[in-house]
Design a protein that fits this description.
- The complex is a heterodimer of chains A (about 300) and B (about 290).
- Chain A folds into two domains: about 55 residues; about 230 residues, MetI-like fold.
- In chain A, about 75% of the residues lie in helices and about 0% in strands.
- Chain A has eleven helices and no strands.
- In chain A, about 45% of the residues are buried.
- Chain B has two domains: about 50 residues; about 220 residues, MetI-like (MetI-like fold).
- Chain B has 13 helices and two strands.
- Chain B has a two-stranded antiparallel sheet.
- In chain B, a hairpin with a 6-residue loop joins β1 and β2.
- The N and C termini of chain B lie far apart (about 45 Å).
- Classes of the chains: A mainly alpha (about 300), B mainly alpha (about 290).
- Chains A and B meet through α3, α4, α5, α6 and α7 of A and α1, α2, α4, α5 and α6 of B.
Chain lengths: ~300, ~290
């Protein structure tokens, strides 16, 4: 990062004037065509995002009625409040499982393992494989393992464990990056004062890596909120509040899918889409805000 | 051994155990899918299952051919690549090379936002906007291969933009400057000198995008129409492997259910091939770089 900011501050003294450039393009029209294609593509990418968000807001915001947030769900108001509460429970449960595992794995990879050892290579390959597996396959696995083999039935817990495996790679990767970014002088200082490896990790390295870890956890939360395919056959799609960890309850994203699929409550579906979109975008923005804050601090 | 040392060794063990969770998870996923899916493939017959044209699990006798779904997944993914890769790649070129810094601060977060939007929201948007658009402009039902390709094309944009931009930025500045100094225009320098050097990174991004597209479920299910047939035109409906699982798993029993899990196995094999080729591309890129 530091190099880049410096490079942009340097002003070229031999830069081509606009007229020069146009003359050049006249001789080489293909270059101009390429430039235009590049600009059009970038405009299209941004337009896709803007159109999608604005369209959903325009169609959805007028449908954000008090009915949509009624405390009790019924088939008239299709309230999304129970689904939001279920989602919060699923998030907390998933993080309780995934965060300790993910941080532990990252600590091992960053601080204990010999870089480039065979085991580390295997762990990395497996983590990468995990992050490439589509959510429907996680859903199938969760259904086969927790719902069927362990006889839990459709339950919040089955959904949460499935999601925990799914977000594990995200948490491992971000935590590891955050720990590697901690300067070696911290480690040397701590060792020099007589602290052991464990004490150094817990007292020195992890506290300095907290913002990076936090950014990863929030990123994982965003994925959990938006997840549908992994939950539909694990935590199920029963309406209303989940009665316990072992009972089924639909998350907000599942609720949204059900509304879209049934096609009976289009207005409410638009409203729910707004809630889901705003939640996820807010979570992701918070994550990248924290991530940027740390990388900003590092330059200074 | 002092108590401190015991604690050290103990915690080292704990960290080690958490580290091998990923290995355990992959093994568990493989085992559960294979145990539940492979017997069904054996019972149906491998070639009847993978190559069978007819999917009619409720018929007597039932037939379980997933060939149309395999083709459906490939078509839809291909469509997404055709739409998403050129736009994504050129956007990455713009971001890495032509973008004024002030604009970059807006466009970069925008592409990152695109990555965070849940697939169900893409699907609903596709259902309400893109499906009617396809119906009105190209005829047919609207829910079609074309609609699914457009939605997936948008969904893989951020993946391709992100990896391709990083790959382009990783090319040493001297390539660009050298080309400029030889009299090439800025565009020619980027496309003939910088981009070829970033090839393996760009390719990795495309493969990653393919993985996302082939595994996408909820967005596709809402816009693709889900008819089991091999489409002969862009406006016909299509069912993917992923859609097949979600649509029928709710009520399937017996061999039908096992056949759906076996569909998941086939999907998983596709993904493993993609992940492996991804790792091969990456390690080759590292060796060259």
């Amino acid at each position: 990062m530091a190099d880049k900011t410096k490079a942009s501050e340097i002003k070229a003294i031999n830069g081509a004037a606009f007229a020069d450039r146009m003359r050049e393009y006249k001789r080489k029209p293909l270059s101009l065509v390429m430039l235009l294609l590049v600009i059009i593509s970038a405009a299209l990418s941004v337009a896709a995002l803007v159109f999608l968000i604005v369209y959903i807001l325009i169609m959805g915001v007028p449908n954000l009625t008090p009915d949509l947030f009624a405390l009790e769900y019924n088939s008239d108001n299709v309230s999304c409040t129970p689904a939001i509460i279920n989602t919060v429970i699923i998030i907390l449960l998933t993080l309780v499982i995934a965060v300790p595992l993910g941080i532990g794995a990252a600590v091992y990879l960053a601080e204990y393992a010999k870089r480039g050892s065979r085991l580390v290579k295997i762990i990395r390959a497996m983590t990468e494989t995990l992050s490439g597996i589509p959510s429907i396959v996680y859903g199938l696995f969760g259904m086969l393992c927790f719902v069927t083999a362990l006889h839990w039935g459709y339950s919040i817990l089955a959904g949460a464990i499935t999601l925990a495996i799914m977000v594990l790679p995200t948490i491992i990767r971000t935590t590891e990056e955050a720990m590697i970014a901690v300067p070696d002088s911290y480690r040397e200082g701590s060792f020099g004062l007589g602290a052991g490896r464990l004490r150094t990790i817990v007292r020195t390295i992890l506290p300095s890596a907290v913002p990076g870890i936090l950014a990863g956890i929030i990123l994982a939360t965003g994925r959990i909120v938006g997840e549908t395919a992994a939950l539909i056959y694990t935590s199920g799609s029963v309406t209303g509040y989940a009665k316990g960890l072992m009972s089924s309850g639909r998350s907000l994203a599942i609720h949204m899918y059900m509304l879209a699929n049934e096609g009976l409550h289009t207005n409410q579906a638009w409203g729910t889409a707004v809630v889901l979109l705003v939640l996820v975008l807010a979570i992701n923005t918070l994550s990248s805000f924290i991530a940027k804050k740390i990388s900003g601090k590092r330059i200074r | 051994m002092s108590s401190g040392k015991i604690k050290e060794t103990l915690m080292r063990g704990v960290f080690f155990l958490t580290a091998i969770t990923s290995i355990a998870a992959v093994v568990l996923i493989c085992v559960f899918l294979l145990i539940n899916g492979v017997p069904a493939i054996g019972e149906i017959g491998f070639f009847d299952f993978v190559g069978g044209q007819k999917w009619a699990p409720t018929n007597v006798p039932a037939s379980y051919g997933i060939f149309p779904m395999i083709i459906g997944s490939i078509y839809v993914t291909g469509g997404a690549v055709i739409i998403g890769v050129p736009i994504g790649l050129l956007t990455a070129v713009f971001l890495a090379r032509f973008c004024p810094p002030a604009l970059y601060k807006i466009i970069k977060p925008a592409t990152e936002l695109l990555a965070g939007i849940p697939s169900i929201v893409y699907g609903f948007f596709g259902l309400m906007v893109i499906v009617p658009f396809v119906r009105d402009s190209f005829g047919g039902d609207g829910s079609s291969l074309l609609a699914a390709s457009i939605v997936l094309g948008i969904m893989i944009l951020p993946t391709i933009i992100g990896t391709a931009e990083a790959a382009i930025r990783a090319v040493p500045e001297s390539y660009y400057e050298g080309s400029l100094a030889l009299g090439a225009t800025r565009e020619r320098s980027v496309f003939r000198a910088v981009l070829p050097a970033a090839k393996s990174g760009v390719l990795a991004g495309v493969v990653l995008g393919i993985g996302r597209a082939i595994g996408e479920t909820m967005a596709v299910i809402l816009v693709a129409g889900n008819q089991v047939n091999i489409p002969t035109s862009l406006t016909q409906g299509v069912r993917t492997l992923t859609a097949n699982i979600v649509m029928e798993m709710g009520y399937a029993t017996g061999l039908h259910r096992s056949a759906l899990i076996a569909t998941g196995v086939v999907l998983f094999v596709f993904i493993l091939i993609i992940t492996l080729s991804m790792q091969a591309i990456k390690s080759r890129g590292e060796k060259n770089g």
